[in-house]
């Protein structure tokens, strides 16, 4: 777990980098021009050479084979979503054919809610929190309306007391007899709080409630064991910590006990392989997570997943998680040592067992400080109203990066450099 025996000064950062077993993987990723320090990998991971090679390979196969690409290598590209799904499954310790690469996070939430939310007179509510990424709510609200019901009648919201963290006890208390389905984040995108998914799942199942998770802000950074967690479903994007590129196809997990359950949104790639090209007008549902696919998979959005998974498998997720915890602990240490006099604090958990992969740096001038950081060749991430997310990615960020960022923030604080910038929000922050 994370080190707590830090000391100030650049020398320790350099020493930690020398001891880092993952340092060799930095060269497998393209760094930004001009020596920029990239701290936004929890929004969009950097491109890797492995991802590039895999994408170019698929392009070459298409160029040479055309439609025949479906048949080469024993149908490898026809089964691409299943093959990559089974490799992704190792990152959450899911079972064989419980994970499929498909769609995007929002479409997958539509698919999963349409499948698992089957309201009755007694059980009809969907339990959520008020801190999850908004797209999850948009999808759920849409599904409620599609069934001709009122959002305010169906949605049960556990509200955070402080707007930062979720109280798991309150979530459990809200699992009443009228709740049918629960959807929660694994890690909160603002505060990096990591929920105890195993506990929450067990409590839901005790009450006969189905439960699923949005893993967007944890997969590829946090070690999950879905054999133990035993949730009913989950989904995630693959462009953050996984670093599979903008708009990369997403992941979708369905617990094998639900194989055979009628899918909410049926499509021809969810049909059983043996009858798929018979093109009958009766859906012959595939017997595993393949069934939750809809249309033809986007191979150009899937190929980078194949490439970057080579890196994850070489590095080992446990090592990645350990370094992530240590990097974020080191950042917090440096913030405590250097930035408090200038109005900085952080609102993420300090407990390793409750923290995801980023530090939520807080300042009343967070937005303008982000603009100043970019002028100093640092790429952070801003989240309303006052959070600067700093995500040191274990595979390509260094301890020296963390040290330099805090030095830059100290200069910005000392000189109040944010005063040079407008507070008017840009389109992408």
Tell me what you see in this structure:
- It is a single chain.
- With 429 residues, this protein is of the alpha/beta class.
- It has 2 domains: 10-30 and 316-420, Alpha-Beta Complex (Aspartate Aminotransferase, domain 1), CATH 3.90.1150.10; 52-313, Aspartate Aminotransferase, domain 2, CATH 3.40.640.
- 37% of the residues lie in helices and 11% in strands.
- The protein has 14 helices and 13 strands.
- The chain has helices at 10-19, 49-65, 72-75, 80-92, 105-116, 134-146, 151-154, 168-173, 197-206, 226-229, 299-315, 317-338, 366-375, 399-415, and strands at 37-38, 99-101, 125-129, 155-158, 179-185, 210-214, 233-236, 251-254, 345-346, 359-362, 378-379, 381-383, 387-390.
- It has a 7-stranded mixed beta sheet, sandwiched between helices. It has a 4-stranded antiparallel beta sheet with strand order 9-10-13-12, with helices on one face.
- Strand 6, helix 10 (226-229) and strand 7 form a beta-alpha-beta unit.
- Helix 5 (105-116) crosses helix 6 (134-146) and helix 12 runs parallel beside helix 14.
- The protein is globular and about 70 Å long.
- The two termini are 32 Å apart.
- The model has no long low-confidence stretch (mean pLDDT 96).
Tell me the domain tally: 2
Largest sheet: 7 strands, mixed
| Terminal CA distance | 32 Å
The percent of residues in helical segments reads: 25-40%
In CATH, the homologous superfamily of the largest domain goes by the name Type I PLP-dependent aspartate aminotransferase-like (Major domain)
Order of helices and strands: HEHHHEHEHHEHEHEHEEHHEEHEEEH
In total, how many beta strands? Answer: 13
- Mean pLDDT comes to 96
Low-confidence stretches: none
- CATH architecture tag of the largest domain: 3-Layer(aba) Sandwich
Q: What's the CATH topology label of the largest domain?
A: Aspartate Aminotransferase, domain 2
Morphology: globular
């Amino acid at each position: 777990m994370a080190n707590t025996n830090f000391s100030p000064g650049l020398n320790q950062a350099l020493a930690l980098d020398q001891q880092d077993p993952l340092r060799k993987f930095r060269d497998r990723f393209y760094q930004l021009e001009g020596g920029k320090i990239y701290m936004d990998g929890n929004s969009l991971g950097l491109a890797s050479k492995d991802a590039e090679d895999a994408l170019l390979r698929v392009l070459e196969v298409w160029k040479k084979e055309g439609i025949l690409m479906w048949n080469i290598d024993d149908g490898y590209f026809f089964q691409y979503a299943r093959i990559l799904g089974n490799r992704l499954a190792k990152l959450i310790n899911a079972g064989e054919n419980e994970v499929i690469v498909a769609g995007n996070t929002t479409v997958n939430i539509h698919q999963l809610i349409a499948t698992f939310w089957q309201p009755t007179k007694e059980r009809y509510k969907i339990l959520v929190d008020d801190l999850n990424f908004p797209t999850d709510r948009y999808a759920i609200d849409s599904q409620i309306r599609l069934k001709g019901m009122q959002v305010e009648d169906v949605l049960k919201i556990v509200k955070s007391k402080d707007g930062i963290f979720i109280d798991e006890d309150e979530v459990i208390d809200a699992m009443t007899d009228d709740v049918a389905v629960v959807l929660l984040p694994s890690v909160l995108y603002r505060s990096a709080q990591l929920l105890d998914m195993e506990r929450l799942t067990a409590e839901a199942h005790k009450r006969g409630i189905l439960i699923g998770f949005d893993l967007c802000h944890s997969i590829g950074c946090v070690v999950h064991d879905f054999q133990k967690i035993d949730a009913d479903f989950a989904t995630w994007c693959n462009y953050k910590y996984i670093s599979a590129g903008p708009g990369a196809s997403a992941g979708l997990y369905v617990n094998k006990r639900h194989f055979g359950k009628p899918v909410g949104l049926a499509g021809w790639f969810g049909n059983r392989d043996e009858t798929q090209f018979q093109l009958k007008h009766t859906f012959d549902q595939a017997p595993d997570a393949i069934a939750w696919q809809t249309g033809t998979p986007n191979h150009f959005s899937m190929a980078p997943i194949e490439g970057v998974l080579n890196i994850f498998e070489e590095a080992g997720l446990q090592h990645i998680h350990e370094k992530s915890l240590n990097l974020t602990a080191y950042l917090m240490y440096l913030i405590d040592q250097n930035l408090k006099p200038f109005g900085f604090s952080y609102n993420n958990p300090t407990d390793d067992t409750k923290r995801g992969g980023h530090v939520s740096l807080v300042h009343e001038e967070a937005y303008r400080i982000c603009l100043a950081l970019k002028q100093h060749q640092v790429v952070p991430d801003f989240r309303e109203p006052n959070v600067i997310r700093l995500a040191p990615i274990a595979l390509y960020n260094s301890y020296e990066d963390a040290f330099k960022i805090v030095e830059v923030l100290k200069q910005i604080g000392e000189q109040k450099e944010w005063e040079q910038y407008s507070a008017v929000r840009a389109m992408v922050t």
